[in-house]
Amino acid sequence: MNTLLVMAQIAGRRCAIEAPHVDMVIEMGAITPVPRTPDFVSGITAVRSQTLTVIDARLAIGFDPGAFAMDHRAIVATHERSAYAIRVDAIEDICTAVSEPDQVPGGFGEAWARVSSGLVETRVGPALLLNLESLLRAPEPFGAAA
Amino acid sequence: MDDLLADFVAETREMLEASSGEIVAWEADPTDRARLDTIFRFVHTVKGNCGFFDYPRLAALSHAAEDALADCRAGRREPDSRLVTAVLAIIDRIAAMVDAIEAEEEFEIGGDEELIAALEEGGDDTDSSSSPRTEQPEPTLADAQENAEQDKAAHSRSDTAVAQRSIRLPVDLLDRVMSGVSDMVLARNDLAHRLRQAGTQPMIDGPFERLTSILNDVRDAITRMRMQRIETLFAAFPRLVRDLSQTLDKQVTIDLEGGDVELDREMIEMIRDPLTHIIRNSIDHGIEPPSERKAAGKRETGSLSIAARQAGNTISIVVSDDGRGLCPDKIGAKAASMGLITEDEREGMALNDILQSIFQPGFSTAETVSNISGRGVGLDVVRQNLERIGGTISVKSTKGVGTLFTLQIPLTLSIITGLNVVASGQRFSIPQSYVEEIIHSSSRVLDFTTVGETGLVTFRGNRVPCLKLSEVLELPPSELADDDLTMVMLKLANGDLFALAVDDIHSHSDIVVKPLALAVMQAGIYAGSSLLDDGMPVLLLDITSIAAQGNIVSDLRGRLHKVREEDEDNQVKDHSRAMLFTDFEGRRRAIRLDLVKRIETVQTSALDRSGLTPRVVIDGAILPIIGLPDGPIEREKLRFLRLSDGDSQLAYAIREVVEAAELSGSLTPVSDDPLVEAVTLLGDETISLLDGHELFARFGEAPIESRKPVCRLPQGEWSRTILAPLLTNAGYEVASEPDIQEDVAIWFEDEYEAAAAIDMEFAAPVVRLRETPEAPENSPTIYRYDREGLLAALNSARRAKGQG
User: Fold this and answer.
1) How far does B251 lie from chain A, in Å, by closest CA?
2) Which structural domain range is residue A52 located in?
3) For residue B446, what pLDDT is reported?
4) pTM of the prediction?
5) CATH classification (class only), B710-803
6) What single DSSP character describes residue B605?
7) Predicted ipTM of the assembly
8) Contact status of B591 with chain A (Cβ, < 8 Å)
9) Could you tell me if B183 lies within 8 Å of chain A, comparing CB atoms?
10) pLDDT by residue (tens digit) across B723-772?
11) Interatomic CA distance for residues A126 and A116, integer angstroms
12) Which residues of chain A does B187 touch, with a Cβ-Cβ cutoff of 8 Å?
């Protein structure tokens, strides 16, 4: 298995996103807040005349972003024809996965289990492989969030 | 599937689309050879093609139909409705088979023989309803492609398009180009913004201008690429009407108009269902059975007419029938029983307003208008679907005469005009189509009040619910007072009004609407986003949803109370208007507008401050001045309100005029200043209203020259319509009766010379007018359009007379 992975720190944990799902990494510009949306939607921003929905990955998983640093860059991914800019603690590197995603006994904890499809080994160590689709879904039913 | 086969499928579809309308027309007039030929050509082509591709069943069907039609062409057989039905059934079957071929599926066995047998002359009465109509096996597979083919079909049908070269394109490629161009426009806007920031750079500005104009052209062209004649939509209707009317045993003719109106391809798809629904409704509920029509003295054949018109950025489609019409009584009763309106309101509602309740959710036309059951989908869904694309629908009807549905839809989905507003420091965009009017609430026409938790404004005599945008969006409350908010009056599709209070209006712009991510859309108040000229994204508000969430749609009728007429009369009486100004002591003051005759600007040198009361000469009249500051006046020019009570006049010196405003607040009398009648609240300021009675009692005097000078004019149209108003404005009395003694007279030069030649006596000094701007030498004449010169000449002539 030689999948390329974009490595990032999210809420202090090392995570990996499969590179084919990542469109690009951008410098964040001004964010226009969007009232009445769940917390994890930071707002919308424009990059090269394209509108991106800015998602704070820490909030989307269920952590308090105040406790962590924030990268001035964001990971851009397209899901269901909408483009998202995903904000994380830090964007680290691109690595090659050296194992298939695997579960570990005892799991990763409830918050992480929802957004992760398992653990992958890379040359920098183990990382949680994030499932973008779950990440971009609300951490809880929208009725409660909104 | 190889290309050749794909072409076959596409071509067959195209011809199918084209021939379904033809075949109904042919049924109406079986002698019409042109129609017969078209249909014959279709089956003939299909037959030829399927032989080539080895589809024996298709070949057999088309061959049978071709034979029957050939007989008709050769005159061996008279086409009748049974034959038409049978041919239609075969064409349907061919369409279903073509779908199956495209989906690369096996088509169900059997049924072909019956269809072929139905073609036989004098064969069994095989009704169209009994012939197997196969559902399209894989409708989702190639919907998009089908659209493209309809596109093509439209062109191949239109006469002019025959000569045009055309190519077939997948629709998503077209969409990609479209969105690419939209992005290009946005990128250009961004660049324009940056160039503006960088200042003028002739090296770059020129080419940039060129880029802009090219881009605009391309955008136009692309928009047109997405356009489709509405004909493609209409083409299916004759068949629909024919099938429906046959099922219902009614006779209906359809009349289509405006098929050449072009509409966004996507939009055509969006209105297909609503239009079909309305047509079904009209035939099902509207048009009566032949016997009933005859009894009512109408033609047995009902008529349904669909007309499309383009007006600016909207297309209106009118569907009208001459059926039994809607019954306002029943609809009103039903609406009342459903709680949409109260009985009292029903009394007061216009007939037309009652009819619009049929678009309310849950309103079933089946129970009220006809005993034929509905299909579970109401007109409210039609309305919703139209509103989703920014359209509206309304109905008009006369009982027994017919019903008329009007659909208004925007030309295109993706580029709309937006009104950018500001709420709590953030910009949002509102589709311009909803905006009825923008009212700065300081203009005092709105009378913003809060009743309970509900904001209300008065707009043209109606109490209209008002939502504050910052509250809708749960933003921190605006720093502005309620009275300083700007009201955007929005008109919903059903005609209901509501006001959206915003902090400020930013600008209008054409915006390219982009969909937003699910998480944002789920908030239910955004319709999309766009980029502004400065590259910042802006959210487009979904007005219909906001109104729905604010609970002002369903019971809006109930809340849109008409302010009682007496109240309105009172208001008019109370709200007399006043002129707001700042006096020389810097105080805001108001004076009733009725008293203000004019606002005058006078050179300070024209002031005479020698006497006890300063005076000023305005237009030759000497007026007393009040309100002047003590001490020297530094200004070169002074402004005065020229007040008049009819006889006496006053000049009130002011620093500046603020505005004319309505005295809507209560007036509190004051006693400490005799010149002030009352204080009142305007906006959030208290204003002293001057006491006109006291002013004139103390200072008023008739202008020294109270009698207006009389001026006699020459005869003729020009002097009556042009000269007379000018002189009246300048303060002259125009002499019309011959026995009035004039002070001065105006003559045309040629007439004057003639009169002088016979030594006529002139009772008053004469000012002579000439035709040409250039004066002949030593001529004491004035050019007829030299206003200043004329007035000056009249003045000096009068003075000369006074001295003489």
Assistant:
1) 48
2) 4-139
3) 67
4) 0.46
5) alpha beta
6) G
7) 0.86
8) no
9) yes
10) 888 887 777 778 766 677 778 888 888 888 888 887 777 777 888 888 88
11) 13
12) 48-49
